[in-house]
Amino acid sequence: MKTAIVSAFVMFGVAIVISMAVAALIKVLFLVVRRLNQEGK
Amino acid sequence: MHLHDLLNIFQGVTSLFDSSWPILLGRITLMLLGMVLVYLGKKGILEPLLMIPMGIGMSAVNAGVLFLDPVTAAAVTEAPVATGVATHGTLMMAPLVQKTDNLMYILQIDFLQPIYTFAFSNGLIACLVFMGIGVLLDVGFVLARPFLSMFLALCAELGTVATFPIAVAMGLNYREAASIAMVGGADGPMVLFTSLTLAKELFVPITVVAYLYLGLTYGGYPYLIRALVPAKLRGLKMPPHPIVKVTSDEKLAFAVVGCTVLCLLFPSAAPLFLSLFVGVAVREAGLSYFVAFIDGPVLYGATMFLGLLLGVLCEASTILNPKVLILLVLGILALLLSGIGGIIGGYLAYFFSGRKINPVIGIAGVSCVPSTAKVAQKEVSKVTADSIILPEALGANISGVITTAILTGIYVTIIPLLK
What we know:
Largest interface: A-B, 27 and 38 residues
Radius of gyration of chain B: 23 Å
Helix content of chain B: over 70%
Oligomer: heterodimer
Largest sheet of chain B: 2 strands, antiparallel
Shape of chain A: rod-shaped
Number of domains of chain B: 2
Structural class of chain A: mainly alpha
Distance between the termini of chain B: 61 Å
């Protein structure tokens, strides 16, 4: 039971880190592609 | 003609009375339940696209049980023919057969076995549905406000995370607990994928429970919203947000890079990520013929066969498992906790934004695309007709698909390592 609770916290922690990294990736990509598009024009 | 010969003609009836009491009652109950599902699907209370094929499949498989000949019985039970095992069975599907020789034999007998073996048990059908979902998703809503969308989606995973230790406390092993906890993610294909990967012996009841409950979110979540968010806050009008125009190039770049990074992190869930993002990429690349193909024949064909196979899998002898009652309780608990978690996320966004964000958008973090976003907008419109939250709600909704896929990847990677 203790293992299950600790694992749940660990897995949620990993999910938070990865999801926020994906959000940051989205933001960075968005800015990079926008800049590239503007330079191309 | 003897009475024995006459009874042999109506094997569906004779096999019914030849069964043990639990199986007899189970078969009759499941036949009736199948009919109820068709009725509820037709009335629109449950999702008709899934419930109508599932309901009729459930009724038919429990009615069409016969006495198998010794060779087929031996293949189904995986016992040697010499033992002369006599057993009941159907001519539809034998989901528990594992040995290659027996499987090859059954593939030539049971009419749905080819679809089950080549498209269901390897997760292909779940991936095809996911591809269809990808084509329907407009990731522009996520790209416009990625951090808010992801935050709300993470809060709405409360059920997926909290149900896992609760399920372990209720006697399930780690693999079974993780599979039923995935119901909290409110994404049918991912529940199917996780249970096939982690708990193959329980994937039938888990998937059936998941799809039954997912059909109820549209009817149940409005009550949860009304219970947890007062009318004054439900009607809150969000200040007009500058419209961020996201081009298809930006969406395509996100699909390609996002898919590659997630596959790199979680190779075991790579089929799901690839299926989702190939749908997004096809849409954003403007491949209209592919979009029409995936959006139509692939998505609807996969959904129909998914419903039919789930129904046919509900044969009394397969589904009657002492753990089904626990799964029923845990499934509803997972969805309830996810809904509550989503609304807590909505409240946090409301307070941190200086009371500008409508807390109802939190429920849209539960990734039942697009049902929960539509439910959120409907509940808000009931209080303030001109309050529009749909763009933000869809952003959270689509992020919910991504966070559920991430949690699926984490579960199928980490759970097998737990001792």
